[in-house]
């Protein structure tokens, strides 16, 4: 057999074996042979390579029947391979390290006002944070396969096309780290985080509520890709206030974090939550108005993509008990006549960590899909 063809076949078989273990949990070699259609000897060789490389670990023996030697199950190991998720948002930087099992090994958030700060200065701070987390990962004995940076704005080919709240336009992301780095939209990565680790289902719309508002669409358990997704700039009032994007009446000017805080007369989300809990009229009115505007934008989105579930993340999560009723009321008015039902709204299970978890998870899924290049590391 030609060497290239043999290598390609081995890579495909490694993917089959590791993928089955990732999806199905601990499995014996016999079970893997049955699931993959590979011979037992081939599975044994592949599992041996993955064990030696630290991708797998052996667990307790399982007796399938009364006769024969009990099989030993193998499962993903968190002892070696890991990934780094990063986020650069308007008022903070964040990072997390995930191991191959999806366990969070490190998580950090740095409050920082990035508005009006040159992109290169923000990216330098991201690089410093990433370098520190890579060093911490090494201290844990982990090999980081790669890093993904989440940014609030549409991204194409490693370039942030526009992030009005950061003041970025056509900014190439180059972090100069000792691992491969890519960049993606924060809402898209938040959707992946919810899909893999949180409240997501096979089909849902994820809405990230921060100073800006983004959205990520998951269809058949796959992220729907495009350069849009900025739900915050959907028109909800033609005569509304001016938005940072240059238009007027955008959802962000009603339901964005700053818009809600200003209307409620408070300075932080914690203060807003406290005011809502005590029944403060200004806070209740501000969040109700935000919910109505959000409902209008969601109705337009649902009429286009026809999802049955909407997951509200970012600051919308802690505000969900007060925000959702107003949004649901608008959805019932706008959608019931055509659809007969409205999508279920639910709060994010991951909160503010959704994007960094999705970013780190993207690399982990890439390693599972093609483990070959990492076996020799």
From TrEMBL:
Pfam families in alphabetical order? MarR_2 (PF12802), ROK (PF00480)
Name of this protein: ROK family transcriptional regulator
Into which family does the record put it?
Answer: Belongs to the ROK (NagC/XylR) family.
Residues annotated as domain HTH marR-type: 17-59
Q: Which InterPro entries match?
A: ATPase_NBD, HTH_MarR-typ, ROK, WH-like_DNA-bd_sf, WH_DNA-bd_sf
What domain of life is recorded for the organism? Answer: Bacteria
């Amino acid at each position: 057999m030609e060497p290239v063809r043999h290598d390609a076949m081995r890579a495909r078989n490694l993917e089959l074996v590791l993928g089955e273990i990732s999806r199905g949990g601990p499995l014996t070699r016999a079970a893997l042979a049955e699931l993959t259609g590979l011979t037992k000897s081939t599975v044994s060789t592949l599992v041996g390579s993955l064990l030696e490389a630290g991708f797998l670990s052996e667990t307790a023996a399982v007796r399938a029947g009364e006769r024969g030697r009990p099989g030993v199950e193998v499962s993903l190991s968190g002892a070696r391979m890991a990934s780094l998720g990063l986020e650069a948002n308007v008022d903070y930087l964040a990072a997390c390290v995930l191991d191959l099992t999806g366990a969070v090994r490190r998580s950090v958030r740095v409050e920082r006002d990035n508005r009006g700060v040159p992109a290169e200065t923000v990216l330098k701070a991201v690089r410093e944070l990433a370098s520190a987390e890579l060093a911490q990962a090494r201290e844990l004995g982990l090999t980081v396969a790669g890093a993904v940076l989440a940014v609030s704005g549409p991204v194409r080919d490693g370039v942030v096309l526009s992030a009005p709240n950061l003041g970025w336009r056509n900014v190439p992301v180059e972090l100069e780290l000792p691992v491969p780095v890519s960049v993606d939209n924060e809402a898209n990565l938040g959707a992946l985080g919810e899909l893999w680790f949180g409240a997501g289902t096979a089909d849902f719309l994820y809405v990230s509520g921060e100073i800006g508002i983004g959205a990520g669409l998951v269809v058949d358990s796959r992220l729907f890709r495009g350069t849009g997704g900025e739900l915050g700039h959907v028109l909800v009032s033609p005569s509304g206030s001016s938005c940072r994007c240059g238009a007027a009446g955008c959802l962000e000017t009603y339901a964005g974090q700053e818009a809600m805080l200003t209307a409620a007369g408070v300075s932080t989300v914690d203060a807003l939550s406290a005011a809502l809990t005590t029944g403060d009229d200004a806070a209740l009115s501000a969040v109700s108005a935000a919910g109505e505007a959000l409902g209008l934008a969601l109705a337009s989105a649902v009429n286009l993509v026809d999802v049955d579930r909407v997951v509200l993340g970012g600051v919308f999560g802690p505000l969900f008990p007060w925000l959702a009723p107003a949004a649901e009321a608008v959805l019932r008015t706008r959608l019931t006549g055509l659809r007969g039902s409205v999508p279920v709204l639910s709060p994010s299970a991951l909160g503010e960590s959704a994007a960094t978890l999705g970013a780190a998870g993207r690399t982990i899924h890439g390693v599972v899909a093609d483990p070959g290049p990492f076996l020799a590391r």
